[in-house]
Design goal:
The complex is a heterodimer of chains A (about 170) and B (about 375). With about 170 residues, chain A is an alpha/beta fold. Chain A has a domain of about 110 residues: Beta Polymerase, domain 2. Helices cover about 30% and strands about 30% of the residues of chain A. Chain A has a five-stranded mixed beta sheet, covered by helices on one side. In chain A, strands 6-7 form a two-stranded parallel sheet. In chain A, strand 6, helix 3 and strand 7 form a beta-alpha-beta unit. With about 375 residues, chain B is an alpha+beta fold. Chain B has one domain: Cytochrome-c3 Hydrogenase, chain B (Orthogonal Bundle). Chain B contains 16 helices and eight strands. In chain B, the strands form three sheets. Chain B has a three-stranded antiparallel beta sheet. In chain B, strand 6 and strand 7 form a beta hairpin. Classes of the chains: A alpha/beta (about 170), B alpha+beta (about 375).
C-alpha cells in the first residue's frame, strides 16, 4: 500500500524545491521574469526575449537543468504572438529528476525571431529546427534554420500556424 | 613535322585534360535509406574517407503525417485512434501519456483497477515492441535465428493483447478516464503461463545472441557515448541508461500504480553499442516481473474507467505528462483554450531525442560499425516524424 508519510514528505520536498528555484530566478532577474504557475513537479516561467539565454545559463549552472525534454511553439493569432516553450529537465541532480521547468518566451508573430539556446543546451538542436519549419520562428545563432520534416518542395505557410487550415476541415 | 613532335603535341593536349585530385574528391558520398531496408523510413547521408565516416547529415520526414495538427481538429476522445499510428507496436504507451495529460488537465483520477489494467497493457506492449526491435536488430547483423525467434514469440504477446483489448496492435485501449473495457475472465491464468514461457525463451535468446562471440565483437567498445555526452545530448530511455544514468520515468516520477510496484531500474556503465542492445532485453525481463506483480496485486473487482462526456471540454490551461515507453521518455504537452478540442498538442518522443546522438557516434567510426550503432539507438522513424 501507499506509504502515506513518505508520500507527504516527498510532496513537501518537491514544493520547497520548486519554490527555491523560482525564488532564486526571480531574485536574479527581477520583474523581467513572471511566474505563470507552480504546480506539483511542474512550473512555468515567462521571460523577456532578451534574457532567455542568460536565464538558461543561470538555470543550468546553478540548478542543474542540463537538457530539454521538449521544445515547441504555440501560435496565438489573437494576441499577434508566438509563444516558445522549453521544457527543461535534469539528469545530474537527483532531486530534480521528477521536476520539469517550462522556460517560455514570446515573440512577435509578423517577424518571429528569438535567440537560440543551442550553445547552452545542445539537446535543443532538432526541436528548434522543427519549430522553425512548423511555426516559422527564426532562431538567431542556430546553424541550420532549414527544412527538416516537411517535403523539400513545401511552398505554403508554416503548418502549425493557426491560419493554416487542413483541407476539408 | 616529325612523328616525334606530333606525339609530344598529343601528350601535351592529354596532360591538359588531367585534373588533379582535390581533397574533396577523396570522399565518397553514400545515401543510406529511405528505401534501404536497414533503416526503415529514414535516410541519412554519410561521407566516407576510405572506410571511415567523416560526415553525417540526417534527413527524416518520410513518414511525417502532421499528428500535432490533426489533434487540433478532433476532440479529446477521437484523437486516440490516430495518435497511436506513429508506433503501432507500442500503442499502449503512446496513448498512455496522452491520457495522463488529458486527465491532468481535466482533473480526474482513474479507478484503481483501471490503473492496473493500463500498466499491464503498457508492459505487454513494451515486450511486444522490444521483441520486434530485437528481431530487426538480429537480421541486420546477419543473425537470422534472432529474427525468427522473437518474431514468433511475439505472437504469444499479441494473443494476450488481443484477448485483453480486442486488437493485436493499435488497441485504442487507454482512454482519458481509464481503459475501454475490463479484462476477460481467464486472462490471468493465460497471461501467467505465457509470461513463464517467455522468460524461459529469454534465457535462450541470451545464450544464442548476447553471448555470441561474433555479436560481442561487433558491438563491444563500438560507438561509445560517454555519460557526459549522453547528458549533454539529452538522450533518453535505453540509450541514456546504457551510459550509466539510472533514469527511468516509472521510477523517478511514478505515474498511476507504479509507485506501488517493486522493480529495478536497468542500467549499465559500459556506454557502448552492446550495452544499448542489452538494456532493452533486461527491460523485457523486468517487465515480466512487473506483470506478475501487477496481476498479483490487482483488485478482484471494481470500475475500470471514469465515465466522461464524449465531447468533454478541457479547462483553459496546459499540462505536461510523460511515460517511459519502449524507446524512452514519451511526453505530451497539451494546451487547452476551454473548448472541446485541444488548442495545441506537442508530442516529444524518445526516438526524436535519441537520433541526435547518431551523427555524434557515427563520425569517426568505420562503415561496418554503422548497423550496430544505428540499431542500438532504438530508433523508430515513424515515431520521430509523427
Amino acid at each position: 500500500m501507499i506509504d502515506n508519510k513518505s508520500e507527504i514528505e516527498l510532496k513537501k520536498k518537491t514544493i520547497l524545491l520548486s519554490k527555491d528555484i523560482l525564488n532564486s530566478v526571480v531574485e536574479k532577474f527581477g520583474d523581467r521574469i513572471k511566474v505563470i504557475y507552480d504546480k506539483r513537479n511542474r512550473s512555468k516561467i515567462m521571460v523577456d526575449p532578451e534574457i532567455i539565454v542568460e536565464t538558461a545559463i543561470f538555470l543550468r549552472d546553478n540548478h542543474g537543468f542540463d537538457h530539454v525534454e521538449s521544445a515547441s511553439g504555440t501560435d496565438y493569432p489573437k494576441e499577434d504572438q508566438i509563444e516558445i516553450n522549453y521544457h527543461l529537465g535534469s539528469y545530474v541532480n537527483p532531486d530534480l529528476f521528477p521536476y520539469v521547468l517550462v522556460l517560455s518566451t514570446k515573440t512577435n508573430r509578423d517577424d518571429p525571431k528569438t535567440n537560440s539556446l543551442i550553445n547552452i543546451l545542445p539537446s535543443v538542436e532538432y526541436f528548434e529546427r522543427e519549430t522553425y519549419e512548423m511555426l516559422g520562428v527564426y532562431f538567431i545563432g542556430h546553424p541550420r534554420n532549414e527544412r527538416f520534416l516537411l517535403p523539400e518542395d513545401w511552398a505554403d505557410i508554416p503548418p502549425l500556424r493557426k491560419d493554416f487550415r487542413l483541407k476539408g476541415r | 613535322m616529325s612523328s616525334l613532335d606530333e606525339k609530344i603535341d598529343e601528350a601535351k593536349k592529354l596532360s591538359m585534360q588531367i585534373v588533379k585530385e582535390s581533397d574533396e574528391d577523396k570522399l565518397m558520398t553514400l545515401s543510406v535509406g529511405p528505401q534501404h531496408p536497414g533503416t526503415g523510413h529514414f535516410r541519412f547521408i554519410i561521407k566516407l574517407d576510405g572506410d571511415y565516416i567523416v560526415y553525417v547529415n540526417i534527413d527524416p520526414g518520410y513518414v511525417h503525417r502532421g499528428e500535432e495538427k490533426m489533434c487540433e481538429y478532433r476532440n479529446y476522445f477521437t484523437n486516440i485512434p490516430h495518435l497511436e499510428r506513429p508506433v503501432i507496436h507500442d500503442s499502449a504507451n503512446i496513448t498512455y501519456s496522452y491520457s495522463l495529460a488529458v486527465e491532468d488537465l481535466i482533473g480526474i483520477t482513474v479507478p484503481r483497477r483501471g490503473q492496473f489494467l493500463r500498466a499491464i497493457t503498457s508492459e505487454l506492449d513494451r515486450i511486444n515492441y522490444t521483441l520486434y526491435w530485437l528481431a530487426i536488430y538480429g537480421i541486420f547483423l546477419g543473425h537470422s535465428t534472432m529474427f525468427m525467434w522473437p518474431a514468433a514469440d511475439r505472437e504469444l504477446v499479441l494473443d494476450l493483447l488481443e484477448r485483453l483489448t480486442g486488437h493485436r496492435i493499435t488497441h485504442a485501449f487507454n482512454i482519458p478516464g481509464g481503459v475501454r473495457n475490463d479484462m476477460p475472465n481467464n486472462f490471468k491464468e493465460k497471461c501467467l503461463s505465457q509470461i513463464n514461457y517467455l522468460e524461459k525463451r529469454l534465457k535462450e535468446y541470451e545464450h544464442i545472441f548476447y553471448n555470441n562471440p561474433l555479436f560481442r565483437q561487433r558491438t563491444e567498445g563500438v560507438g561509445i557515448l560517454s555519460k557526459e555526452d549522453a547528458i549533454k545530448l539529452g538522450v533518453t530511455g535505453s540509450v541514456l541508461r546504457a551510459s550509466g544514468v539510472p533514469y527511468d520515468i516509472r521510477k523517478v516520477e511514478p505515474y498511476d500504480i507504479y509507485n506501488e510496484i517493486d522493480f529495478n531500474v536497468q542500467y549499465m556503465k559500459t556506454c557502448d553499442s552492446f550495452a544499448r542492445a542489452y538494456i532493452p532485453f533486461l527491460d523485457v525481463r523486468e517487465s515480466c516481473h512487473i506483470i506478475r506483480e501487477l496481476l498479483d496485486k490487482m483488485p478482484e473487482s471494481g470500475d475500470v474507467r471514469e465515465k466522461l462526456l464524449s465531447n468533454i471540454k478541457g479547462p483553459p490551461g496546459e499540462s505536461f505528462k510523460r511515460v517511459e515507453s519502449g524507446r524512452g521518455a514519451l511526453s505530451y504537452h497539451i494546451v487547452s483554450d476551454g473548448t472541446s478540442r485541444p488548442y495545441r498538442v506537442k508530442i516529444s518522443t524518445g526516438s526524436f531525442r535519441n537520433i541526435l546522438a547518431l551523427p555524434f557516434l557515427l563520425v569517426g567510426s568505420m562503415l561496418g560499425d554503422m548497423p550496430p550503432i544505428y540499431w542500438s539507438l532504438n530508433y523508430w522513424p515513424i515515431e520521430a516524424d509523427r
